[in-house]
Amino acid sequence: MAFTGTRHFTIKAMLALLLFFCASISAQETSTKSTVSKDSMTNGYDEQLAAELGADDYGMRLYVLAFLETGDATGLSQEERMQLQRGHMATINQLANEGHLVLAGPFVNGGDLRGLYLFATSDVQEAQALAARDPAIQKGVFKLRMTQWYGSAALLTVPATHERIQKQQP
């Protein structure tokens, strides 16, 4: 079902879906590669893992959430757009492999809101510098809106899990 109404409502709906996703991840029991002693665990709490992920006492941490919107680029040929899209995907993969990008993906309902990045930093300027490596952003195909976001530190484990279930790269 496509979202209707103002763009403000669409962003709120997308954030609600993202928060639901994060809550469902943090509610699931996961196995980790950490060596855990019984002394470091209380009611399932893993102090070592929390420290590795930079979690606070609530299991949360700050990230930078970036919304990709349709940019102002005009006059690009189909070949240029395809080349920029390949560069865009390569940058996403590189940022993820370097540990800077936790989540990335497109919105499928069309409109000006095109996708999101979730950066593994709380520093908006650092996230802006990382995003500036994307050729599609450099050429104005996309523009960004960024904000700090407080979410589950467990999200940092998503890329490793995704790698295990991804059959082929886009």
Automatic annotation (TrEMBL):
Cross-referenced Pfam families? YCII
* Gene3D superfamilies (alphabetical): Dimeric alpha+beta barrel
Identify the residues that the record assigns to the YCII-related domain, covering every copy: 76-144
Q: Which domain of life is it from?
A: Bacteria
> Which keywords appear in this protein's UniProt record, sorted alphabetically?
Signal
Q: Which residues form the signal peptide?
A: 1-27
SUPFAM superfamilies (alphabetical): Dimeric alpha+beta barrel
Query: Which regions span the lipid bilayer?
Result: none
InterPro entries, per the entry: Dimeric_a/b-barrel, YCII
The record's family statement is: Belongs to the YciI family.
- What protein name is recorded for this chain? YCII-related domain-containing protein
Q: Which organism is it from?
A: Aliidiomarina haloalkalitolerans
Species lineage, top-down? Bacteria, Pseudomonadati, Pseudomonadota, Gammaproteobacteria, Alteromonadales
